[in-house]
Amino acid sequence: MTADVAHTATASRVTDRPGDASPFALGLLLRRAHWRAAAVMEEALRPLGVELRHFAVLIVLVDRGPTVQRDLAAATGSDKAGIMRVVDDLERKGLAVRRSVPGDRRVRAVEITPEGVELFDAAHVAAEPLAGRLVAELGPGEPERLTDLLTRFAYPAGGQV
Prior knowledge:
Layout: H1 25-45, H2 52-64, E1 67-68, H3 69-76, H4 80-92, E2 96-101, E3 104-112, H5 114-134, H6 142-154
Antiparallel strand pairs: 1-3, 2-3
């Protein structure tokens, strides 16, 4: 803190403890929930030889079909170098291939392979029993309510950020 800025006490200091009332509380809580969910999903994916970053790309490819790397990066929150490493890994494992885009030789689209689809399906089977651990503390109807709230939060009407 600089000497010319007056220090004022705030009603709430940011923490990530339950009950935090700071303006950062929701973001920190969502971050902690993400870490917990990611750890459980990584556990499901580990025996299949992929990580969550690989599976995130497979999800996009299953949903959208062949996708250029720039769009994969945007869809997965990755940067250009990161998405290239992930796609390289998927290609080495035989789970995806890069193909030229008709009309633009500089652009390559990534496409899931039949082996990639098999792994995608196997991951869902492996994740099913583990996913229940994420909501084990919730009561009847609460997992569905949580999913509804998070969906509305993640995809707001009007597409606001």
